[in-house]
Amino acid sequence: MKYLNLLGALPALLLGCAAALAQQSPAPTGQQLFEPIASVVMGPRCLNCHQVQAPHQKDIGIEHAQMVMRGQHDSGVATLQCAACHQAGNSADGKVPGAPHWKMAPVSMAWQSLSKVLICQSMKDPSKNGNRKTMDEVIEHMKTDPLVLWAWNPGAGRTTPVMSHEEFVQKLQAWAAAGGPCPGDPVKPAAK
Ligand code: HEC
Ligand code: HEC
């Protein structure tokens, strides 16, 4: 009999535990929120354009062939513009990648060899990120820009980011909703 009573009480007990756990579960940290974003941003499709001097190629990020250089406006030197080869879409065989306005990211957005924390901070820094001031502005580009979207349709068997673009946007929104904390930032108490 005693045994049966105990069993009867079990669901209530479990529910109680779950509620207690939910109450205590701390707000996600910058580390937890930014990690999935970093795993996309630090992939070769993104980093190959977010370089200092010249774009990179392939998954291992070797320097671009044909001595392609950034040039004054991030779109190549006068004699060798990106647009000479890169069109508004991938070439038919996919070998030459393409998307509208194909060019390198500005120097201030060169993430090559930056740590996760530094990438996170510079993404939010208006002096580096193209004067984007709010978290909504910071993530908008990654939600809609054709150069970003290209990474999910890169052609010629190139690897794609580690999660779908839809999932990436969800991670960006969760990060922005928490105010865009970076790894190591103090955790704000969860809003009640
Ligand atoms: C073909 C080159 C190219 C590729 C590929 C590319 N970018 Fe960019 N990126 C740019 C250019 C050019 C800009 C500047 C445009 C602007 O500021 O509006 C930029 C700007 C950005 C910015 C805004 C700057 C900031 O610090 O907030 C973010 C964020 C960004 N890119 C993320 C990505 C991500 C994520 C990927 C990969 C999924 C990616 N980019 C792939 C060229 C590229
Ligand atoms: C002479 C033609 C040519 C010019 C000019 C050129 N590219 Fe490329 N680019 C290519 C070809 C071809 C590939 C594909 C290489 C491969 O994957 O084997 C490529 C690949 C790339 C990639 C690698 C994409 C990836 O992640 O795999 C980036 C980034 C890139 N180019 C950026 C640029 C930028 C920015 C410019 C101008 C500053 C430029 N390219 C100028 C022909 C060119």
UniProtKB/TrEMBL annotation:
Q: What is this protein called?
A: Cytochrome c domain-containing protein
Q: Where is the signal peptide?
A: 1-22
Q: Does the keyword Signal apply?
A: yes
Its keywords, alphabetically, are: Signal
Please verify whether the record's keywords include Cell inner membrane: no
